[in-house]
Design a protein that fits this description.
4 helices, 70 residues, globular, mainly alpha
Amino acid sequence: AEAAAGAYRARIKNDMQAERAPHSCLPEDTQSFSSSELLEHLRSYTGAERESTTITVAFADLMKDRYPCS
């Protein structure tokens, strides 16, 4: 999960540098969540989705769900 978080942060940084619309809009203050919250999100995928969804993609999906840009 730490690698997925790092990849997500890099994606947001790259989007900002390239002046692309962000994937999601994190609040200014530091946010955290438990591993059980990530596992709960992973369980929300259907069986077929689980087979093809990486942790990195699932983490980004969770961030988009939690912190959408208006």
